[in-house]
Amino acid sequence: MIRLALSLFVSIVVARYLGPENYGIWNYLLSITMFFTAFVGLGMDSILPRELINNPKDSESIISTSFFLKLSGGVVGFTLNILLFYWYKNPEPELFLMMSLMASLLIFQSLDVSDLFFKSKLQAKYSVIGRNIAFIIIALSKLYFVYTDASLIYFVASNSMEMLLGGVLVFSIYFYKGNRISLRSIDIEKGKELLKDGFPMALSGLMVMLYMRIDQVMLTEIAGEVANGIYSTGVRMIEIVYFIPIALADSFFPGIVYSKKHEGELYEKNMLGFYSIMTYTALIIGLVTVLIAKPMMDLFFGVQYEGSGEVLQIFGLSIYATFISIASGKFLVAENYKSLIFLRAFFGLITNVVLNLLWIPKYGFMGAA
Q1: How many angstroms separate the Cα of 31 from the Cα of each of 83, 142, 240, 258?
Q2: Whole-number mean pLDDT of the chain?
Q3: Residue 42's pLDDT band (boundaries 50, 70, 90)?
Q4: What pLDDT digit, counting tens, does each position of 323-363 carry?
Q5: Neighbour count for residue 5 (Cβ, 10 Å)
Q6: Measured distance CA(24)–CA(154) in Å, rounded
Q7: Among 244, 203, 238, which Cα is nearest to 339's?
């Protein structure tokens, strides 16, 4: 809730300061970088909590192995990101520097293994403390950048700085609690097992990230930065809302895996409770979003972002589907239905790309929404 309130305020101030064009460029670079997060996650973000719950005595080996795998993946993702961007766009030096700064978050993202450790122990409060401290510091920095009339590059760099600072803080708590990571604890066989189990999840994660972010890339390429800037304000508002189902799912998931391991009836009860909370929360938030989207966006972002309210209304209609998709995704992970996770993500991506090609040229950012 702290993040919701502060993120909403900062997003409004920054978007109004940058204007649709610069805001569109920023989100364009972020969207491209998100395509490469599959190299960092390697599909392990959903698998690690399950492994840590099922094998608590091997937690140091699992975390050490996962960290070095994710760090290696982050370096590969960063390298591919900037090389492909340079080859495709042949950008000006400043734009290439901004892309490099944005892509560096892929390396820093490897630090999130400590978050996954705490979540598996139902101690997510430590992750929340570290990540929220980083979030608040970077949010205040963005406000300072606005106050000092800073250029776009500072805002682009803030994404990576938040990832780095948050990761360092949570890792510090991880070590303070007596946990360790070391080269000697790396288990090659466990690494192969994690990669094997994670590969379908990595492909699914890539598909999900593509269909979540491809809109902004295609919109920029077809309709320009201004259209993407207007569209991105609606995306930013709905992403603030999406924090709720992700937080709920991350909180419920370790308990669901534990109950599945030990007692079938409790597992079913936990799943039913999880689905019920997600359903009622989604219906309430979705209805409120549709009703207030247009007047709220007009008030917050002003005439330069005209049309963002209608974008948010369309997203509001999809909130229920998003909540239930996240909930069912956790169920599929618990049941180890990796092929189903991949298939639904793949068909979601194909549908989105086809409809973007048909509707963006005709309807612009409304077509993307």
Answers
A1: 16, 19, 16, 35
A2: 86
A3: low
A4: 998 888 888 877 778 778 778 888 888 999 999 999 999 99
A5: 10
A6: 15
A7: 203
Determine the residue type at 321.
A
CB 135 within 8 A of CB 267: no
Q: Are 312 and 238 in contact (CB under 8 A)?
A: yes
Return d(Cα 114, Cα 227) in angstroms, integer.
38
Distance CA 179, CA 60 (A): 7
The whole-angstrom separation of Cα 219 and Cα 126 is 38
Of 351, 348, 283, whose CA–CA distance to 316 is shortest? Answer: 283
User: Residue 264 burial by CB count (10 A; 0-12/13-18/19+): exposed, middle or buried?
Assistant: exposed
Distance, CA of 236 to CA of 238 (rounded, Å): 6
Distance CA 298, CA 287 (A): 18
Looking at residue 254, its amino acid is P
Collect all residues with Cβ–Cβ distance below 8 Å to 49 and sequence separation of at least 6: 116, 119, 120, 253, 254, 257
User: Cα separation of 128 and 124, whole Å?
Assistant: 6
- Nearest Cα neighbor of 169 from 201, 206, 127, 199 is 127
DSSP 180-248: ---GGG--HHHHHHHHHHHHHHHHHHHHHHHHHHHHHHHHHHHH-HHHHHHHHHHHHHHHHHHHHHHHH
Structure tokens at 16: 């109004």
CB 327 within 8 A of CB 249: yes
* Cβ proximity of 267 and 283 under 8 Å: no
Q: Each residue of 223-258: pLDDT tens digit?
A: 888 999 999 898 888 888 888 888 888 778 777 777
Q: How far is CA 330 from CA 245, 253, 317, 366, in A?
A: 11, 7, 22, 31
User: CA-to-CA distance for 276 and 282, rounded, in angstroms?
Assistant: 10
What is the full DSSP assignment across 167-185?
Answer: HHHHHHHHHHTT----GGG
Q: How far is CA 124 from the centre of its chain?
A: 17
Helix (H, G, I), strand (E, B) or coil at 91: coil
* 301 CB neighbour count, 10 Å cutoff: 22
Contacts of 344 (CB under 8 A, 6+ apart): none
